[in-house]
Amino acid sequence: MPIENWSENVLLVELADDPQFTDDMNAVLEAVEAREGLNVVLNFQNVTFVNSSNIAKLLKLRKLLTVNRQGKLKICAVSTHVWGVFLVTGLDKIFEVYDDVASGLASLHLDGK
């Protein structure tokens, strides 16, 4: 299952390339809109490319979590190719990126969430 309730306030999402990426992100956006204080950990392990639509969804999710809902967003296990896109677009400066899911989940615990 690509979307898992890791805990009461943490959603763990196993993303894949489109069209699954778009479907999963739409489901995550709906979940965040429905629940305040929800934290999201996105596992990019199976994502080999991102397009402008994917980036727009990531930015929308970040805005929903940080501005409106008081949640945190962690991105984990980003491939070299996708990391290159993050660097070129400046996304590396606005997203918290971790080497693996365990590190992303641990960072939520350290943040006190």
List the helices and strands and how they pair.
Elements: E1 3-7, E2 10-16, H1 20-34, E3 39-46, H2 52-68, E4 73-76, H3 80-89, E5 96-98, H4 101-111
Parallel strand pairs: 2-3, 3-4, 4-5
Antiparallel strand pairs: 1-2
Helix pairs in contact: 1-2
Care to describe what's here?
By secondary structure, the chain is of the alpha/beta class. It has 4 helices and 5 strands, in the order ββαβαβαβα. Strands 1-2-3-4-5 form a 5-stranded mixed beta sheet, sandwiched between helices. The longest helix is centred in the middle third of the chain and has 17 residues, at 52-68. The model has no long low-confidence stretch (mean pLDDT 91).
Give a short overview:
The protein has helices at 20-34, 52-68, 80-89, 101-111, and strands at residues 3-7, 10-16, 39-46, 73-76, 96-98. With 113 residues, it is α/β, with parallel strands linked by helices.
Span between N and C termini? Answer: 24 Å
Output mean pLDDT.
91
Helix share bin? 40-55%
Q: CATH superfamily, please?
A: STAS domain
Report the biggest beta sheet as strand number plus sense, adding barrel if it closes.
5 strands, mixed
In CATH, the topology is named: Transcription Regulator spoIIAA
The proportion of residues in beta strands is 15-25%
Top-tier CATH class: Alpha Beta
Q: What letter string, H or E per element, gives the SSE order?
A: EEHEHEHEH
Identify low-pLDDT runs. none
Query: Which outline best applies?
Result: globular
- Count of domains: 1
Please count the helical segments: 4
- What's the Cα radius of gyration? 13 Å
Under the CATH scheme, the architecture is 2-Layer Sandwich
DSSP strand count: 5
Enumerate the strands of the largest sheet in spatial order, edge to edge or round the barrel: 1-2-3-4-5
Helices and strands: which structural class? Answer: alpha/beta
